[in-house]
């Protein structure tokens, strides 16, 4: 799920805004990675080991994280990997009620980063001869995408994965947003189980935005359909395919599909949202929610370390043959975002200093996250906010790591 940012006039996509906002943040006093506890004594990072990347090489990143907390985000957790080793850091709080600090190894809802996992599974299936990217949606989901000018016979699997299908984003439906994303509606329905086809039905109640293939427009509906194609092709659940093809082979021990579960596995921080536009200072703890409300467009729970491990394997060709990896990195332009292009579940962005990165951003009610890497996977950064209202500051952390 890509979180929809609430405004007085409706909802707008947050992912492009998050990755495009790469202005560097003014420096602030930073603790070292060893840091000090409240008594002033040294505390050693859980990731410190011989050869580990030292904090002085990531001071700009730490300062940008601290700036996000000063601006109002409760806490930020991050992990970078480069030639020096692994650096993990966390700032701010993980629990506003108790004041407990944000943990470096917290599990969190990754939102639309899930799309990279889904696209990888479908590309593996293509490599196995089970489907073709240019198959129609109709071939795999006969009769499902019909009505209001929508026609699955004219939309390909490739167009789902690169968001050129023209299908309406179900999260942008006003009634759906009021019921499941905002205010009392969210608080009332956060534990509801929502089957994927409900999301599809919401989208198909709207006319398509444009002819298939005409341009890019980010739509979570595309990845609901991609998940259904995985299930139809593999004869198993989408979750089982992700587990057996990616999570277990890569030993992503902190990564799960929650299914209909509502809890975050420990260790984790609390997640926070501003659900009421009429009361912008109100903050609600929304940590618990039914995982089916994201599903294949954004349900995965993971950690910064596991996300780095996943993108490392993906970009180094451990998950896909060269043909499929090339297809994944074949991009289309993103309107209004000149420094961003979108492939198949994978985005390409350019920082302010010209560094090209591959990965994805994600938003879920209560959470924002980003995971990006150089193309050779030699320098990676993943990080998470335990709140959903400040997507614009996220790019500053990315820029600080690669340009600071």
UniProtKB/TrEMBL annotation:
It holds the Pfam family Beta-lactamase. Residues 29-62 are annotated as: Disordered. Residues 65-368 form the Beta-lactamase-related domain. Keywords: Signal. The keyword Signal applies. InterPro entries: AmpC-like, Beta-lactam-related, Beta-lactam/transpept-like. Gene3D superfamilies: DD-peptidase/beta-lactamase superfamily. The keyword Hydrolase does not apply. Residues 1-30 form the signal peptide. Residues 30-50 have a biased composition (Basic and acidic residues). It comes from the Bacteria. This is Alkaline D-peptidase. It comes from Streptomyces venezuelae. The lineage of its organism: Bacteria, Bacillati, Actinomycetota, Actinomycetes, Kitasatosporales.
